[in-house]
Amino acid sequence: DAGVTQSPTHLIKTRGQQVTLRCSPKSGHDTVSWYQQALGQGPQFIFQYYEEEERQRGNFPDRFSGHQFPNYSSELNVNALLLGDSALYLCASSTTRQASYEQYFGPGTRLTVT
Amino acid sequence: GEDVEQSLFLSVREGDSSVINCTYTDSSSTYLYWYKQEPGAGLQLLTYIFSNMDMKQDQRLTVLLNKKDKHLSLRIADTQTGDSAIYFCAEKGQAAGNKLTFGGGTRVLVKP
Predict the structure, then answer these.
(1) How far apart are the first and last CA of chain A?
(2) How confident is the model at residue B26 (pLDDT cuts 50, 70, 90)?
(3) pLDDT 10s digits, A38-73
(4) Of A55, A103, B40, B86, which is most buried, counting CB atoms within 10 Å of its CB?
(5) Which of B31, B34, B44 has its CA nearest to residue A98?
(6) B55 DSSP assignment
(7) Is A109 on the interface with B (CB under 8 A)?
(8) Residue of B nearest to A57 (CA)
(9) Interface test with chain B among A5, A6, A24, A37, by most B beta carbons within 10 Å
(10) DSSP label at B22?
């Protein structure tokens, strides 16, 4: 049973560019959440997708957008990249069939903005 | 709003017990979680506890919850060098929907 997978592993972009990160949830999971983890800090919630809609959003600007596909996989898009967007981007999957809402994380995508 | 605090660093000798502490502010927290992060890796879910429980044991891990004081701890028995990592506590509040709010992490160093 494959766990949560993310691609790419690493990415280097220039200020002002746009980036798309991808996530495939754990088998049987229907909900995908995205988190940003800056160096030396805990993860910060960006948004969560369920049934192809954004269900909840954290305190991130509109430059951060996402999508969920019918197979439950998800993309995170960031426009007009800033130096401060450099971070580890983590995807987590969960299922609404479990009240505990345990979230399982992928290995992350390391984004460097120069 | 929700806030989760952890101490920054813990040093422990191999074979001893480690205790990692966490405090949170959201009184509507329903579940609290402990995650482990090794260098360059994602987060590994270690265990979780429902807010109406005081304690949960899972092999070498014991979670204690004091809901009155909003204090959570993770005890690792017989700590091994492979336990060296950053440990995060996280809470899911009823009012906050399904997002997790994380602490800043505690770096645990296990010395031989």
Answers:
(1) 37
(2) confident
(3) 999 999 999 999 999 999 999 999 999 999 999 999
(4) A103
(5) B31
(6) E
(7) no
(8) B99
(9) A37
(10) E
